[in-house]
Structure formats: C-alpha cells, structure tokens
Amino acid sequence: MKLLIILAWRNLWRYPRRTSIILIAIAIGIWSMLSMSAFIRGMMEQHVNDTISNFVGHISIHAPGYRDDPVIDHSMPQPNEHLLHLLNEKVWAARVRVPAVVSSERETMGVTLLGIAPAQEQALSFIADAVTDGRYLNNVEDKGIILGRKLVERLETGLGKRVVLGSQNHSNEIVERGFRVVGIFDSKTENIETQFVFVGRHIAQKMLQMQDNISELALLSKDRNELENLLQKLRATSPDLDIQTWQTIAPLARVIVNVFEGFLFIWYFVVFIAIAFGLVNTLLMAVFERTREIGLFQALGMKPHWIVGQVLFESLFLLAIGLVVGNLMTWVTLILTAEGLDFSRYAAGYEMAGLSSLIYMVLNMSDILTANMLIIGLGLLASLYPAWRATRYVPVEAITRT
Amino acid sequence: MNMKQFPVICRHLGKSYQQGKITIPALVDINLEIHKGDFVCFSGPSGSGKTTLLNLIGGLDTPSSGEISLDAQRLDKMNKSALANLRLHKIGFVFQAYNLIPVLSAQENVEFVMQLQGLNSARRAIKARAILKEVGLEGLEKRRPGDLSGGQQQRVAVARAIVSAPSLILADEPTANLDSHTAETLMQLLHTMNEEHGITFLFSTHDKLVMDYSKRLIKLRDGRIQSDETQ
Predict the structure, then answer these.
(1) What are the strands of the beta sheet with B91-94, ordered from one edge?
(2) Hey, are the CB atoms on B84 and A303 less than 8 Å from each other?
(3) Measuring CA to CA, which residue among B112, B128, B84, B140 is closest to residue A391?
(4) Which positions of chain A have pLDDT values less than 70?
(5) Is residue A399 within 8 angstroms of chain B, CB to CB?
(6) In the CATH scheme, what is the homologous superfamily, with its name and number, of domain B3-230?
(7) Model confidence over B44-67: pLDDT tens digits?
(8) Measured between alpha carbons, how far is A61 from A59 in angstroms, rounded to an integer?
(9) pLDDT of res. A37
(10) Which end of chain B has a smaller Cβ tally under 10 Å, C or N?
C-alpha cells in the first residue's frame, strides 16, 4: 500500500504543468459547485424567510374554510389554554385578516386588512422594522393605520391624512371606519406595499363586529426542521382547526425551493461531467505515457489489482488536492461576499420572481459534503477506466513500446 | 528426470505472430532444458527468436504451442495473476534499456521487488544497501536513475534482479547500451553472482563478450536452435 502511495504521489509531480492544469480544473469545478450552491441556497433561504416574515410564519392556524374564503365568517376564537400551553416559548401572533377596500379622497383600492398586536408582530413579521416614515402602531387599540409606500402613491394620500377602510361584517353589511395614516412602510417587493394595510387588532375587531375572534394565528419555531413534529402536536391539541406549515400556505415558495434544488442538481451534474472528462483524459495520458513503466511493473511481478490501485491513488491525490483548493476558494468567496451580493441593477427582475436584489450566500454543511463526496466518488469511478486500461497491457508489448 | 535440476524445460515450444493474414513464426519446435546454476547465452542474428524465447521463459509472453515449465510449474497453463506471482518470486529481469522506475531512488528501485513480496522495511533496507554495495554503488543509494550513468543504472537493475535471490535471472542484451569497459565490469559481476550464489542466468545477446563469459552457448536461427554447446 505504502509503495503504491509513494509511486502515485511522485508520478503526480512528474508532469507538474499537466497536474497543475487538472488541479485548477478540479478546484474551479468544486468552487463553482459550492459557490453556485451557496448563491442559490442564499436566494432560496431569503425567499423562504421573506415568505415566512410576510405574515405566513412557520405554521399558520385558521378556522376551517378560511384558506379558501378568507372572510370574517371563517374566523375563530382566541387560542384556548391547551393551545397556549403549546405556544409557550414560541413566537406567535393572533391577527384579524380580511379583504377590504381603502379609499382616499381621490382613489379606492382593494387591500388585505391586517389587524395586529404590534408587540407580538415585532419578532414574527417584517412590519415593525419596515416603517420608514411616521411611526409603528403602539398597541392593539391604536387608532392609526400603516400603509405601504406604493399604496400611498396610488391613493395619492400621505402621512397624517385620513383614509376610509371598508369591509363586510358577519351580516354581510359593509362596515367602514376612518383612520389617520400614522406610518408608511417600505418592502422589498412592490406588491407587499400595495397589498397590506395595518391597524390595531382590537380596532379591527370592533370595526368588523367580531368580538375577540381572530382570523389567523401564526407562529415561528426555533428550528424549521422540527416543524412536522410541532405540527402534529398542534393538530392533536386542536383537531377542529386548519393548521398548516408555510409550505402549504405558500406553495409558490415551496415550488421555487424545489426548482432551485433541481437546478443545483443539474449544475452539479454539468460540472462533474466537465471534471470527469479532464480527469479521465489526464489519467489516460499518464497511463499511455507510462506504458513501458507499467510493463516493467508487470514484468517485476506487480499484480493487476495493484496497478489499478496505483492509478486510483493518483486520481485520489488529484481529486483531494483539487477539492482542498476549491473548498478554500469557496471559503474566501464567502468571506468576500459576507455583506451580500448586490443585484439592484436587476431589481425589477428579482422583484418579479419575489426575490430580494441583495443576496447573502448560504452554504450548508450538507452541500459541502454532497459536492465533495460526489466529486471524489464519481471521480474515482471515472478513473477506473484508465486504471483498467493499464492492466490490459501484455508485459512484453508494453515493455518494448517506445 | 529430477525437475529440480532443470529449472527451465521447454517442449516443442512454438511462438508465432499474426501480421494481417500472414502468420510469422518466431520460434519453432524448441526443446530445451536449462540446468540449475547454468550461465546460458542465447545468440543469433536479429529476428532469430532469442528475445522471444527469453520472454516466454520469463512468463512475459505466452507460447502459441508446446509446453514451458519453470521449477516444475507449467507457465503455458497459468493466468495473468499467477504469472505475475511467479515472476515476483522466481525470476529476476535485467533489460537492455535498464528499465528502472524513474520516480524511485536507486535503493527504492532495488527494494521494489522485495516490497511487492511483502518484506518489512528494515529488512528491505539492509538487503538493498548490501546488494548495492556488492555491485559497487555504495553512496549512490539516494540517487534517482536520471542522476546515474548508464553503467550505474544497469548495475542497479542487476541489484534489483538478484536481491531477492530468484531461481532464474533473465538478461536481454544487458550490455547493448554500455561501453566495453562497463560491459566487462558488469559481466564480471554477473559471473561472480553465478559462481558465488549459484543463480541461473539466461542471456540473449549479440555481444561477443557475453558469449565468452557464458558456460553454455545456444545459437538460434530463424526461430530454431542451430547449436547448443557447452564451453
């Protein structure tokens, strides 16, 4: 074994230029796999986090029928003590969420009315940090309204002005209430700014005459991977409620994640094919150039499987060095892009896809392991062909070849 | 017949090569017995079949017809792996073009076969250094082939061939690339090995010097044995 390792290592450096070229190819290959993975993973994470913070949460609880017809008739009571026990130590918020119209003196727009508990939302959704003009709501009794910047523009209203919010109560009668604009929020995507308006929850409940009922309850878990377990517990506690994870509430986000993961797989495959061709070519060249030497090994009594072992060790060294360099390059890339990659020049396109134009790269340990194991495993597999070719020589022909 | 006395036995041995539709006979009906401790030289003009015969005896090539055995083992019946094993434990090779492993030092080249045989590193090192000293290469153990002269390289090849005390050493034109003085020194060395260690040597050569050293001269012509003389 030691002999094979020594031979493989020294043979590797007999042609330093060729070895360096394939090493660079492998390093760039793994770097591109990991960097692309980190970029796409970053976009995915950001999209999922944005989706979750856009009033979805990790898990949403609704009255049955609400998701199909989100009206006041499909509201539910405040969480009972069993549910509250499960929600203990979780970040959660109860909301009123119904379709509504908002009117200024010039325009009327269809919106989603969100009656929120401002303190609860601070840790759960983006709105507390998104108010850039005016102020955030103080409490559930706050009589002000917060509008998105784009909506303010379309309504041709502004901070301090009054708007009228209208919706339907349980009797299908139109109920209206006037609000003064106390805050304007900005969002990464325009449709969020035009879709949501925010008022204090108690004020919304009074306006809609729904007593203390709510439309939804959203919660965040500490670990996204434990959602299924939590979901089962919640469903067991409240079997009469519709309790779903973000994947069900926001299917588009789940589809985007699946598409990205599919793209990553294709990218891995393409990069690997390029590396495999380079690797097999290099090893075949090495085997052909050393035909006489391999003939000599055979003449001296080296068994075929040892010759295979030597070629595979050579391949393993090439792959291992290339991977170390490639991983280091990725690490440097992650450090250099820690502040995020700014794609604001293409912001409109990103917004259309529901993505932020500032991407933070995210690299999972599982991605690193997958890419490295894929290259090592399949690389060695690809090297079997040149290794097998090396064992097919007839010693007397190989040793006399010039 | 005591097979142990005849390390190499060939019976009706034939080898032919196919060139397109034409069959070219390289060896025809060779019958031969090599005695233990022999110092045999195959000579003859180019194409007479001497190297082919040496390759068949060394298990580097397979015969087209007939039988060939080494230490009572039929080489013509063996598979690749068994032949490799036989070469590893019973045969030493010295080739015309030195054929050392360029990435290994002189000592590592000598240790190579012992390493394949599974000897531990301490024993390998002791034996390799001793044999290099015996062939006059003391102090050059760490040099790689590229840093040695032709004669020195051929002596390393000889050291590698004899270090694990094989039954048989096959040397194909061992002096072809050496000047006369170096060739003389090498032949003296091989002769001494034969005399002192009783190793059986088979040479193929054009070189008169090698023929002069041999105890038995077998002349080949057109793939057949023309004469077999003990000197």
Answers:
(1) B91-94, B168-172, B200-205, B39-43, B216-221, B224-230
(2) yes
(3) B84
(4) 346-356, 401-402
(5) yes
(6) P-loop containing nucleotide triphosphate hydrolases (3.40.50.300)
(7) 988 889 889 998 998 888 899 999
(8) 7
(9) 87
(10) N
Predicted local confidence at residue A131, as pLDDT: 93
Which of B55, B84, B104 has the CB atom closest to A301's CB atom?
Answer: B84
pLDDT score at A66: 92
pLDDT at A62: 92
Run of H or E residues at B117: helix B106-117
> With 50 as the cut, is the pLDDT of residue B3 above it?
no
Radius of gyration of chain B (CA): 17
CA angle A201, A203, A207 (to 5 degrees): 115
Which 8-state DSSP code applies to residue B103? Answer: T
What's the rounded Cα separation, in Å, for the pair A146 and A164? 12
pLDDT (average), residues B137-166 = 88
**SS3 at position B38:** coil
Instruction: Please report the number of interchain residue pairs, chain A to chain B, with beta-carbon separation below 8 angstroms.
Output: 64
pLDDT of residue B14: 93
The helix or strand, by DSSP H or E, that contains position B13, with its residue range, turns out to be strand B8-19
Hey, is B107 helix, strand or coil? helix
pLDDT of B4 above 60: no
Closest residue in chain A to residue B101, using alpha carbons only: A293
The arithmetic mean of pLDDT across residues B110-130, rounded, is 91
pLDDT at residue A201, rounded to an integer: 95
DSSP state of B48: S
B82 close to A (CB below 8 A): no
Residue percentage of chain B with pLDDT more than 70:
97
Q: Report the amino acid identity of residue A139.
A: N
Residue A56, CA atoms < 13 Å, CB-side half-sphere: 21
Give contacts of B85 with chain A, Cβ < 8 Å. Answer: 301, 303
Residue A16 touches chain B, beta carbons under 8 Å: no
pLDDT for B178 beyond 80: no
